[in-house]
Amino acid sequence: MIASQHSPEERASVVQGLYPIYTALVREFVIEVADCPQEPEATPEATEECEAWLSRVDAEIQVHQLRQFLQTTPLASEAVLRNLLAHHMQKPVKSAADRDKMDFLLVQYFSFCAPSGLEESDVDLEFVAQVLEPVLGEQRVNCPEWLVALDSILATATHCRRLSELLHSGVLDQGRKLKTQAGERFYDPAAMVAFVRFNFMIRRIFFRRMHDDLNAIQDGLRELEQRGIATIDCRRAQFSAGEPTSRLRMICQSWKVMFHAEYSSGHPLRMLVDLRAAVDDALKGSGAAKGKNSRAAAAGAAESDPGRIQ
Questions:
Q1: What pLDDT is recorded for position 5?
Q2: What is the four-CA torsion angle of 68, 69, 72, 77, rounded to 10 degrees?
Q3: How distant, in Å, are the alpha carbons of 64, 68, 149, 259, 270 from that of 265?
Q4: For the CA atoms of the chain, what is the radius of gyration?
Q5: Taking the model in full, what pTM does it have?
Q6: Which residues of 23-52 are buried (b: 16+ CB within 10 A; e: fewer)?
C-alpha cells in the first residue's frame, strides 16, 4: 500500500495549501458547511481543526464537482494537485468517493505534468510511473495480473471509429468495474500507475471521437445550408422538430468547451451522438447519396473554417 504517514510539518503545509482551494470550492458550489473555525497556522491545534474542516467539505463535494473546478479554475497547479493527493492518501479509511477522487486527481496530475505532444507509444507504465514519482514515490514498474484486462479494454476502445460505438462498447463501465472490485488493492502504487495510464489513454480516445463527431456535425450542417435547408428535425437529440442549423452550429461551438473539460458525462455525450444521427438523417433525406460533389466542396471550405476542431 502507498505510504500515508506525513510529518506534522508536512501535514501543516498540505492543510495550509488546501485551505484557499477548499474555501473556493465551498463558495463556487454553495456547499452547506460551517466555516473553518480558524485559518491554518503553524500550530498543531490549528492544523488539526482545519484538517477536520477539510474532511467535512470532502464529505459534501462530489467527484464531478472537483473535476469541474480543477479543470476550469486558474487556481489549479502542480502544487495544488500534489496537496490534494497527499490529503486523500493520508486518510486512514478511504470511502468509494475518496477512491474516485484519487482516481481523477492522479490522471489530472499526470496530464498536467506530462509533456505535450505525447505519442501513444510514449505512454507506457515506466513513463507514467516516472511522472507520478513525486506523488507515489519511486517504484518497480509492473502491471498486476488482475489488471491485464485493461489492455484489452483499451484495444476495444481504439477500434471504435465513432463516438456512438465507443459509448455502446461499455469500456468506461468495464474500467469502473475493475476499480470497484479492486477494494484496497486500488491503492497499490503499481495498480494506480496502471489505472492512470488506462484513464489517460481512454480520455484521449474519447476526445478524438468527440472531435470527430463535432466536425462531422459542422460539416453536415454546412452542406445542408448549401442545399437551402435551414432547419432539421432534432427531436431525437432533445431539440425541436424544426431546429435552425445556425443555432445548432452555435451549440456545437459551446460544446467544444464543455467537452474539453469533461469526457465522461453520459447525458451530454448521448445528445452529441443523437445530434450527429439527426444531421446524418437530414443529409440522407435531402439526397446526400447524390450530393458527393457538394459534400467535397463543403469539406474543402471547412479547411479554412476557424470553428473546426483540429
A1: 60
A2: -130
A3: 9, 11, 24, 9, 9
A4: 23
A5: 0.82
A6: eebbeebeeeeeebeeebeeeeebbebbbe
DSSP 3-state assignment of 243? strand
HSE of 3 in the Cβ direction (CA atoms, 13 Å)?
Answer: 10
| Spatial contact of 139 and 190, defined as CB atoms under 8 Å apart | yes
- Per-residue pLDDT at 288: 45
The packing angle between helices 189-226 and 149-158, to 10°, is: 10
Mean pLDDT by groups of 10 residues along the chain of 310 residues: 64 90 94 85 84 93 91 90 94 92 96 88 93 90 90 95 91 93 93 95 91 93 94 93 94 74 61 93 74 50 48
How many Å separate Cα 204 from the centre of its chain? 10
Rounded distance between C-alpha atoms, residue 199 and residue 108, angstroms: 10
Q: From residue 137, how far is each of 109, 127, 193 by CA, in Å?
A: 14, 13, 11
pLDDT at 50: 92
Burial 272-296 (b: 16+ CB within 10 A, else e): bbbbbbbbebbbeebebeebeeebe
